[in-house]
Amino acid sequence: MMAKYRAIPQGFMTVGEVAKKMGVTVRTLQYYDKEGLLSPSAESEGGRRLYTDKDLITLHQIISLKSLGFSLDDIKERLISLETPADVANALAEQADDIRKKIEQLQASLSAIEQLKAEVLQMQTVSFKKYADIIVNLQMQNDSYYLIKRFDDDTLDHIRSRFDKESGLDFMDRFNRLSDEIIQLQKENVPPESEKCQQVVKEYWGLIMEFTNGDMSMLPKLMEVGNIDTATNAWEERQKIVNDYLEPALQVYFSGLGINPFEEVKP
Fold first, then answer.
1. Contact 65, 95 (CB under 8 A)
2. Which of 46, 237, 238, 249 could anchor a disulfide with 192, C-beta 3.0 to 4.6 Å?
3. pLDDT band at 133 (very low <50, low <70, confident <90, very high)
4. Residue-by-residue DSSP string for 68-98
């Protein structure tokens, strides 16, 4: 409940004093009041809105959360009442968690920039189109981002038209999970003709069809990109194991279907 005072007693601050002390504008404080984020604790008889030190702590919460990228609606949900030491500790613990996450995001961005710099230096020509694709893939935290260098412009245009960030992430997640299953089958020496292996091969082929949208003319390009003679990094090593295990399993699968898509699309 808001207390009323004839004058401004010690321990209370006007909106102008709070704005100056906390480095925000008076208009911002008025907006926070209007939005129900931070209402002054008291009011003078002359109608001046008065803030307390406790209000400053809440304002600090708001400013900190805003700097971490939270919207005002998010902040409203996250504000913790500060009635006891435990309340204050909980508020600080939440802020600390948010800051840790922000540090992780910034660290990921820094790594992405360093990786992009390395990629740019390896590429022989300036290609802003490919830089843009690499950046998008780095944002998606897609370990196979460097594959983009091996795609031609037609394939890159196809990927752009087929996938946005969310669907691209979902596709890569399913592809990587299936690759993990295939590596496990290889470790267990599951034969390529077994029902277990053939079920995984069917899913893998389904993903390829989903990627190409049924365009068989893309298969030779994908074979070229996917063909790894000597692995130069962890992702390529992993993909080489997948390829070596899948090759005979795919032959069994196509034999059962009575087709060979790779033969049909040869020039």
1. yes
2. 249
3. low
4. TT--HHHHHHH----SSHHHHHHHHHHHHHH
